[in-house]
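Title: [Solved] Lipoprotein 3D structure

Original question kept below for reference.
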Amino acid sequence: MFRFLIAATAIALSAGPALANGHGGGDPAPPKPEATTAPAKVVLTKQGPTLVDLKGMTLYTYERDTTGKTSNCNESWVPLSATVDAKAIGDFTVISRNDGSKMWAYRYRPLYTSPADKAPGDANGNATTLQWRVARPEN
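Solution (posted by the thread starter after getting help):
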């Protein structure tokens, strides 16, 4: 009986930390890193890899956006907007617009959606003028 009591005590003492908060006791688990998500993704189309926003709308670049720091399009094309506190992630950077708002750029090329595209997968903006190009991951 005495051996049983010693064995039970040893088991209880060794299992105690493992049961405390589910991670072995001691210092608390480190906080998880903040999840960051790219503002766009690559899809494979008949024309090759294409950047689309998170809703699946085709993204475009504007030939007159040359500095990588600002957007030169203030017309009907819709910028891929970023929050004021957005931070660069991978090849995606945040740039300023003339009105002070922020937008996403891919490899320092501002990204826009076309008003001519009505559904995910449409690429009608490429045909409107030669100054607009479908954004591709190799650009």
